[in-house]
Design a protein that fits this description.
alpha/beta; Carbamate kinase; two-stranded antiparallel ribbon
């Protein structure tokens, strides 16, 4: 059997909720430290890594906005939440000696660089982890779509989606004990089955650009490094 090939450049998608405990808000230091240690282990393999992080640990747009705040404003607030998480990741990574840059689609020059594709690629080539904040910079788009977009733009070889389960199932395995795990899926199967892996816009973008997605459990130590090394982990979603 041929040895697994380590990817040269990847995009890691983290949820905001991964930075806090179950049902909690904010950034929990222990969770943050664990994640950045895993990222450091992965980049030490020589991979170029971009990261997109959500903001759900700080602001959940549809859930939190109520009747007083409109959808567009709520989405912009969510973009600001992703920047807060990106700054936390940057600081924690640099404390471990991992050079890091934050680029935001929503420009706040005192806190981050503006998102510029060519500059981002240059940072990656220099061995810096680039954290993309601010989503796509537009309302009505999720951070999953932002992850797919940035992955395509920086010419990543794979999108690694870190979750709370060890892959994609026929149903929520925490609610349905009969749910079965997929080792491999096509994008069309994911869309047609409405498996809620990512939103349809993100999946379609990956499909059209033949960008594979690996869905895996972030809580398992070493999983980011395994995914980067091309080892079998979680569920692979590909064009065929």
């Amino acid at each position: 059997m041929a040895a697994a090939k380590t990817y040269a450049r990847v995009l890691l998608k983290l949820s905001g909720e991964s930075l806090c405990g179950e049902g909690e808000r904010g950034v929990r230091p222990e969770a943050l430290s664990s994640i950045v240690a895993e990222i450091k282990t992965a980049v030490q393999q020589g991979v170029q890594m971009g990261v997109v992080v959500g903001g759900g640990n700080i602001w959940r747009g549809q859930q939190d906005r109520g009747e007083a705040i409109g959808r567009v404003t709520a989405d912009y607030m969510g973009m600001l939440a992703t920047l807060m998480n990106a700054l936390a990741l940057q600081d924690a990574l640099e404390k471990l000696g991992v050079p890091t840059r934050v680029q935001s689609a929503v420009e706040i020059n005192k806190l981050s660089e503006p998102y510029i594709r060519r500059r981002a690629i240059r940072h990656l080539e220099k061995g810096r982890v680039v954290i993309f904040a601010g989503g796509t910079g537009n309302p009505y788009f999720t951070t999953d779509t932002a992850a797919a977009l940035r992955a395509v733009e920086i010419e990543a070889e794979v999108l690694l989606k870190a979750t709370k389960v060890d892959g994609v199932y026929t149903a929520d395995p925490k609610k349905d004990k009969t749910a079965k795990k997929f080792d491999r899926l096509t994008f069309m199967e994911s869309i047609q089955r409405r498996l809620k892996v990512m939103d349809a816009t993100a999946l379609t973008l990956c499909l059209e650009n033949r960008l594979p997605v690996v869905v895996f459990d972030l809580a398992v130590a070493g999983n980011i490094a395994r995914a980067v090394a091309g080892k079998k982990v979680g569920t692979l979603i590909a064009t065929e």
